[in-house]
Amino acid sequence: MHLIFDAHFRYDCIMKDLQQLCIIGPTASGKSSLALAYARQHHGVILSLDSLSLYREIDIASAKPTPEERGTIPHFGIDVITPDAPFDVTRFITLYHQASAAAYAAKSPLIIVGGTGFYLKILLEGISPLPSLSSAAKQRVAEAMNDLPSAYHYLRSIDPDYAHALESSDRYRIEKALEIFFATGMPPTKYFRAHPPQPVIADPLPIYEIMTERSILRQRIVRRTDGMLSAGLIDEVCGLERRYTRAPNAMKAIGIKEVLEYLDGDCAREEMREKIITNTARLAKRQVTFNRSQFHITRQGTLEELERELGIITPPIKYPNV
Q1: Considering the chain, what is the average pLDDT of its residues?
Q2: How far is it between the farthest Cα atoms of the chain?
Q3: How far apart (Å, rounded) are the C-alpha atoms in residues 71 and 94?
Q4: What total number of domains does the chain contain?
Q5: 52 with 100, same domain?
Q6: With 211 labelled, which of 188, 192, 243, 271 sits at a CA distance of 20 to 30 A?
Q7: Are residues 100 and 51 in the same domain?
């Protein structure tokens, strides 16, 4: 499978003078409010880095900005697919190119904002394009994947180093590895060596990281959790389960899985609330650790400090779900 982009845009020559910046930070730190304020002031375009915001109908649990909050600011990466639809990083790269083309056409800055650092890592480091699959190759892969343990054993026989880095239960990556082998005859390790990833964003990208004292962040997480519950989080999860079951990966997200436990009678309402708060705080800690280990940060500061750094003239509207 090649990386597929919209044919109306020439992504291979995306303009060198496109102005873009990135705002990162732990969940509930104020990223969305800062990005919205900057976009309003500079007529910007926003690309969301939030994996849960991709899904339509997951509005409260994702804490995505509402249509009213977004206003007329063009947003990409929000309400893209249904909760049961597949999504991979090649689709996110397409979203980036669409957002950057829209920003360039409007002579506007592109503001990349969100908490899913993996997507930002992909933009900065790129991925190797996967080969096209013939009908015969697809059939061979399908037959091999009928028996996952045997498929993993076969992968070990053709590429022991690559297989060693995978869990034997990782169906997705085992399948992709076999697709590469049956399409090209090359073990995945050799294929990726011959097709190294190319960065999607080649030019320097200013990255601003919001730093929040732990106790203050905890308070923001508590307020956001209470706001989500007041806004109808439980009803939203009930509707999602009714329409999509619990099978999709999106149904395992923080804020959804705890409500499902509550609906099953495994915990009381207050315990459910505390679990959401605790799990969100743990996620925030992981995000901070990931960001510090993966990215060259242009500027770190509190929300107020970064407002001044970015020249926000009027304070951004502070929404409870930022």
Answers
A1: 91
A2: 62
A3: 24
A4: 2
A5: yes
A6: 271
A7: yes
